[in-house]
Write a structure and sequence with these properties.
The structure is a single chain. This protein is an alpha/beta fold. The chain has a single domain, classed as Transcription Regulator spoIIAA, CATH 3.30.750. Helix content is about 40%, strand content about 15%. It contains 11 helices and 9 strands. The chain has helices spanning about 15-25, 70-85, 105-115, 135-145, 160-165, 170-185, 200-215, 230-240, 245-260, 290-300, 310-315, and strands at about 30-35, 90-95, 120-125, 150-155, 190-195, 220-225, 225-230, 265-270, 280. Helix 3 links the parallel strand 2 and strand 3 (about 120-125). The chain is globular. It starts with 15 loop residues before the first helix and ends with a helix.
Length: about 325
């Protein structure tokens, strides 16, 4: 394996910034948008109440205001980004809730206008593996021919007991089937996982990554569990006081996970950006850049890289 081909910087993993610059040869910014979608895990189609960690607002970190139209949301966020990156290109990121959970006619009303905005080169859609209908898939196939499309699938964990506890309301097999379908149609897949879910061990979290490493995925988002106010997770935590990962434990686990991920898998996220006003635990998450820097330092200390164990694992 070629150590290390991604960057001449301190990073020893395949960063999203490097990936975009390699592909588009310039700075690319993701503009987070809130189209006001619901979720099959909220309205009773799959379950009620959503996943136990979801806030009532359903808005992603720093997403646009759903009171505004998608185009206005995009323009507002874009103007802020232009101050720092005046010549950037943009990817419209539909982040909040389940962004394929609607009729295709509604999806087109939401997606198509922002794709016409200046310097938009792609669209990223966060959704669930059980919320892409056959009609929706046909539309995604069409989008994939016209723009740089990425589908982000929430998995969180491969451990079924944890999945039931957090009220995901879909199976691991459902997830795997959707990854296979999307890749059969040449659509890029990014997977979300969460470290620190209640009662999971370090081995459980590494096993989730080992499983994903064997699938045809193009990217991953690694989150730390955030306990937010007024969520079922807050009630569970106040009642049972399950262990919250320390920053040092989180860093140790993330570095170990990176070692098991193939070097071509892009690391879209490696920590979280919780709302400070809603966050209960862990408070160390507020200092995002300290976490990022400490991950870099630990990789240097171990003299390790993304993927050093990935291929040995695949051969087993």
């Amino acid at each position: 394996m070629n150590h290390f081909k991604y960057s001449n910087s301190i990073k020893r993993y395949h960063t999203l910034d490097y990936y975009y610059k390699s592909m588009f040869h310039e700075k690319v910014c993701k503009v987070s948008l809130n189209a006001g979608f619901s979720c099959p895990n909220l309205d009773g189609t799959k379950g009620y109440g959503g996943c136990i960690y979801c806030s009532k607002s359903g808005s992603g970190e720093f997403a646009g205001d759903k009171k505004d139209s998608i185009v206005i949301q995009f323009q507002k966020v874009k103007e802020k980004m232009k101050e720092k990156w005046p010549n950037a290109k943009y990817i419209a990121y539909f982040q909040a809730r389940t962004n394929t959970y609607a009729e295709v006619s509604k999806l087109k009303e939401v997606y198509e206008p922002v794709l016409k905005e200046e310097n938009v080169i792609g669209i990223s859609i966060a959704t669930r593996p059980d919320a892409i209908s056959e009609e929706c898939l046909e539309y995604l196939k069409d989008l994939n021919k016209r723009t740089f499309l990425t589908i982000e699938l929430g998995l969180q964990t491969i451990k079924e007991e944890t999945s039931k506890l957090i009220n995901r309301c879909h199976s691991l097999e459902c997830f795997k089937e959707m990854v296979t379908i999307l890749r059969k149609n040449h659509i890029n897949v990014v997977v979300h996982i969460i470290n620190g879910l209640p009662y999971e061990t370090k081995e459980d979290m590494i096993n989730t990554v080992k499983y994903l490493n064997k699938l045809d995925i193009q990217g991953i988002k690694i989150h730390m569990l955030s306990i937010l106010k007024n969520t079922p997770l807050e009630k569970l935590y106040q009642k049972n006081k399950f262990h919250i990962l320390t920053k040092e434990e989180y860093i140790d686990i993330v570095v170990s996970q990176l070692e098991y991920l193939r070097e071509e898998i892009v690391i879209h996220r490696i920590t979280g950006d919780p709302d400070k006003e809603e966050l209960i635990e862990p408070t160390w998450l507020i200092k995002k850049f300290c976490v990022l820097n400490d991950i870099d330092k630990e990789m240097i200390r171990r003299d390790t890289y993304q993927g050093v164990k990935a291929y040995d694992d695949l051969s087993n």
